[in-house]
Design brief:
280 residues; alpha+beta
Length: 280
């Protein structure tokens, strides 16, 4: 039986330092359960990016893929009042409430295929590609891998760009829910992976409607009550229903994203590397 682990709710105790990467301005925060990397809604990515982070992380955990511990982190109104950096202080003033944290992996470094490709097995790579195709995650490329290496193992981070259909629910019909996701062609692990079709049935069978329902049920009302959802005319309950319908429909076979990923892998493997002449 597939189990969805409940998200712990932690309290932010101390702002440690910013991680100035991309537009999200995450930070290392000391909580009542140690150090977590926390993303704040006030940094500009918004509630939907945080919801995508939660859904992607919980799906990865259910599928047995390596994810740092995921948690909800409560940030009080007094948190970070003494922060001297005006940019960070402004983010924190706008970021009270429940946010998303990942366990901080001290000493981890960004994955590079040429230096650490042997630390990810073909089986792992295949399963990661399948998940990212399901999630329509465009943000695991050679330019921005969103993979860390820690203790000689890979760890998935940052699913905030996934589920991009939720930014325009009005345009999402059944055909859009079952879209093939051609951007999987740029996935950093695509040529390292095996045929995604070989893991498809196993992976899909683990994500039953009950599992998806358990995941969306854990999405906090404080995020789903954000103005971004009000603009769609959604209450927290109707927002959850949208995610449930989207994901269960996307998992209904035949899954076009599997066929597309398989063809993209074949095409990438058949490409002849450019021959570069040395400069003299």
């Amino acid at each position: 039986m597939t189990i969805v682990r409940p998200l712990p709710i932690l309290t932010a105790r101390r702002y440690v330092q910013p991680l100035r990467e991309g537009g999200s301005l995450p930070a290392i925060v000391d909580t009542d359960d140690g150090l977590f990397v926390v993303k704040f809604r006030g940094a500009g990515q918004g509630a939907k990016a945080l919801v995508a982070e939660l859904v992607g992380g919980m799906l990865a955990d259910v599928l047995g893929l390596p994810m740092p511990m995921l948690a909800l982190v409560h940030v009080s109104e007094t948190f970070g009042r003494s922060e001297p950096d005006p940019e960070i202080a402004d983010v924190l003033r706008k970021s009270h409430g429940i946010y998303v944290g990942l366990r901080y992996l001290d000493g981890a470094f960004n994955f590079d295929a040429t230096a650490a490709g042997d630390l990810i097995s073909v089986a792992q790579a295949t399963r990661i590609v399948w998940l990212d195709a399901l999630l329509t995650n465009p943000d695991r490329t050679a330019r921005n891998t969103n993979l860390l290496i820690w203790e000689r193992s890979p760890w998935l981070i940052d699913h905030g760009a996934a589920l991009y259909a939720h930014h325009d629910w009005a345009a999402v019909d059944e055909a859009r829910m079952q879209s093939p996701f051609p951007l999987i062609r740029d996935h950093v692990l695509l040529t390292h992976a095996g045929d995604v079709g070989t893991v498809d049935e196993e992976m899909a069978s683990m994500l039953t409607p009950n599992v998806i329902a358990d995941i969306v049920e854990q999405l906090p009302d404080t995020l789903l009550a954000d103005p971004a959802y009000h603009a769609d005319g959604d209450s927290p309950a109707t927002a959850r229903a949208r995610y449930l319908t989207y994901l269960t429909t996307r998992l209904t076979g035949p899954r076009a994203f599997v066929t597309t990923a398989g063809k993209a892998r074949t095409d990438r493997l058949s490409e002849v590397p450019l021959q570069r002449t040395a400069r003299r």
